[in-house]
């Protein structure tokens, strides 16, 4: 993550040195495999219509554990019928190049974006009495989309964001808490058990997103 943060800071600092360069701070909410929100900073028109955007999003997973998955002791759906619960979170850091299409209609501006992603995904199946299993993975990816802004005042705009991210497979970590104690395991992508664990642990392969919010121009 550090290289991503350094690239973002460097790019935005370069924009700040341009004198009249503006910045956009935005906050959006909507859906991305669950209820989701994103905070972003955007420096448009660094070189002509090309700019850079850095954002962090967080989502509560709508589905964390696959109901039909069976690791040898019954499907998770059968355990849910007996009271088991599931929860999950998706945290995604993104660094994008942007391309401004300008004002397509009075007060409406459109920006295309594409870039790198770093996702941190976590899911837990909970059986009560401190018995649970948690799966987590950190994965690189790529993504893109379009932002459409509608000016409300001189500096404040509504913004809609539609896009999709794709994440590559990566090592899955598992932590099991049972009555006899805690155990851990890691599954690399070439592990013979990776497919079974990956099938149970729901996280984005392709993550479609639709959010709406506000942005403020400095």
TrEMBL record:
Protein name per its UniProtKB record: Porin family protein
Keyword Signal: yes
Top-level taxon: Bacteria
N-terminal signal peptide: 1-20
Record key words, sorted: Signal
